[in-house]
Amino acid sequence: MAWSDIRSNYARWGAQRALHISLMNLLGRIGFQLVYVYTRALVDYSNAPFEEDGIAYRSLTKTDLRKASLDLELDLTPEFLTRAWSRGDLCCGAFHGDKLVSYAWRSGVEAEHVPGLKVVVANNCRYGYKAFTRPEYRGRGIYPRLTGLEDREYIKRGKTTVIAFSASHNYASRELDKKLGNRTIGLAGYWKIGKHFLLFHTPGVKKHGFSFARDHDG
Hints:
Helix 1 packs across helix 2. The chain has 2 domains: 1-30; 31-214, Aminopeptidase. The two termini are 29 Å apart. A hairpin with a 2-residue loop joins strand 10 and strand 11 (196-201). The relative contact order is 0.20. The protein is α+β, with helices and mostly antiparallel strands. The radius of gyration is 18 Å and the shape is globular. It has helices spanning 3-13, 15-28, 62-68, 78-86, 142-146, 151-156, 171-179, 203-207; strands at residues 32-41, 50-52, 55-59, 90-96, 99-107, 110-114, 117-121, 125-133, 161-167, 183-193, 196-201, 210-214. The strands form 2 sheets. The protein has a 9-stranded mixed beta sheet with strand order 2-3-4-5-8-9-1-10-11.
């Protein structure tokens, strides 16, 4: 991490948090990750589709996503889409005109995390993963407005709980989780050593239906 980044983190988050960010970035280089896991009740707050501040929010169709896969910046490969659709996953997005500027995926089963590792959730859970906002649109509060767009469908599927996680040193994401009403249920993480993973979860995490697991297809 550059000295300028350390100074920036110190100015924004204070000495203790800046030190934690630097430490976790160093540990990340040797494959270690630590996350806080959150949960909240799944409630249908959706009023989609809607438009706010010139950005239109709605569920994405397969046609939308096939078109998006042609834009390399969005990192939506045909292979990824095929796997996501095979699980029944859904995606919501934000458009500026005809341009897809942000998206977020939802799953009620499992989702890829990093190569060789996946997240598995209990049958009553809805999990969010693979979210992206184009850099020039960040800082406009777009992602929080995507949060509930697919919840109505997951409630129909019998889901009652949202489960999510944030890296322990991603304080911006952790602040957002608080604003969304997420409640901390514990810690989880892994250490990747070569092709192997050492996994750990505090008791409350697995009790609420979240776990990291080896992905033999990843």
